[in-house]
Design goal:
Shape of chain B: elongated
Largest sheet of chain B: none
Number of helices of chain A: 7
Structural class of chain B: mainly alpha
Shape of chain A: globular
Structural class of chain A: alpha+beta
Strand order of the largest sheet of chain A: 8-1-9
Mean pLDDT of chain B: 83
Order of helices and strands of chain B: HHHH
Radius of gyration of chain A: 18 Å
Helix content of chain B: over 70%
Distance between the termini of chain A: 35 Å
Oligomer: heterodimer
Number of strands of chain A: 10
Strand content of chain A: 25-35%
Number of helices of chain B: 4
Number of strands of chain B: 0
Radius of gyration of chain B: 16 Å
Strand content of chain B: under 5%
Chain lengths: 204, 128
């Protein structure tokens, strides 16, 4: 089975949120519900030397949505099988089966599942499945002005960019085997829970 | 967040019922209580009411309660499916116990079958 994935170059992401806006626009998402989010990670250290404070700040942005994981914990957790994998390997939700228990939301380490209060069902990124059938890229990918987002078959992306999917604050690749290939920002190696924070966790 | 209240109520009622079953089993085993004693019989009604309340409150936290008919679709891998199945099984046995009690079936069997039902039901939660 082909496995689709997103690639993101976090060394060049400017955090403009064009991908987020394109996703909301394409999927007609209401305020407060975003399937794709842009995280701004900031942190740093400082030390005093000779009466002066020397700072070493760092920061980087990256865009994240559902990674359609190979070991998707949301599929295993969903009691109604509303969350399931399509023949194309995408993890999608059947809204007619979803009973709104929110159990999947608690299991996803990427926070990809978003509850739609107006409809009472869980929602998530479907990689613009309809666009895929037309041979087009997902809306977020084509909207990126920096061209840091890319979409393709996972193995192809890994062969092209390597598999460096570890970046603060995302969990390790081995946890769910996400369809995500990341070019990590040089500062990402410095970021830990102790010296860095994700500033904009709110959705729009 | 508002639905967490019903989850708290569910936990409280379900665990109280299970606690009552276990406490009664200990008393029955130690001989301090007989299954034909009035407190043992009354506790059976209370346990059943608590279990039914737990099921109702579990439905209340759902945003689409009518879709709960599909809740056992993923019983092989979903802990929530398994939990719902276990509690429904225990509630069913508890109701059956009351029916048997009212028909005059010997109390020892009808009351002591509950801990067994609880163990069987909850062991489903740990199925591979």
């Amino acid at each position: 089975m082909k496995r689709f994935a997103f690639y993101i170059d976090t060394t060049a992401c400017s955090g403009c949120k064009a991908c987020q806006a394109a996703c909301k626009d394409k999927n007609d998402l209401p305020p407060g519900l975003s399937w794709r989010r842009v995280y701004e990670v900031e942190g740093g250290t400082w030390r005093e030397r000779d009466g002066a404070v020397a700072e070493k700040p760092f920061g980087y942005c990256f865009s994240i949505s559902c990674n359609h994981c190979e070991d998707a914990p949301c599929i295993a957790a969903c009691p109604t099988t509303a969350l399931h994998r399509t023949d194309d390997g995408l993890v999608v939700i059947d809204r007619l089966l979803c009973m709104g228990c929110n159990y999947c939301e608690w299991t996803c380490p990427y926070g990809a599942l978003r509850f739609d209060n107006s409809q009472g069902v869980m929602t998530k990124c479907d990689m613009c499945e309809d666009y895929l059938y037309e041979g087009r890229n997902p809306a977020c990918v084509d909207a990126c002005p920096m061209r840091v987002l890319e979409f393709g078959v996972y193995d192809t992306l890994v062969a092209r960019y390597g598999n460096n999917a570890k970046i603060f604050p995302l969990p390790g690749f081995e946890m769910t085997k996400p369809g995500l290939v990341i070019k990590a920002h040089p500062d990402a190696a410095k970021a830990t829970n102790d010296n860095a924070v994700v500033n904009n966790t709110e959705t729009y | 967040m508002e639905n967490f209240v019903s989850l708290l109520l569910f936990t409280f009622t379900a665990q109280t019922a299970i606690g009552m079953i276990l406490s009664r089993e200990i008393m029955l085993t130690s001989g301090s209580l007989s299954s034909s004693d009035e407190p043992a019989v009354r506790s059976q009604y209370l346990v059943t009411v608590l279990l039914l309340l737990a099921l109702v409150t579990a439905f209340l936290h759902l945003h689409k309660p009518l879709h709960s008919v599909y809740a056992l679709n993923n019983i092989q891998s979903s802990p929530l499916s398994q939990e719902i199945a276990a509690l429904s099984f225990l509630t069913g046995v508890s109701l059956l116990t009351i029916i048997l009690m009212r028909r005059g079936t010997p109390g020892v069997f009808s009351i002591r079958v509950l801990p067994i039902a609880g163990v069987v039901g909850h062991s489903c939660c740990f199925l591979p």
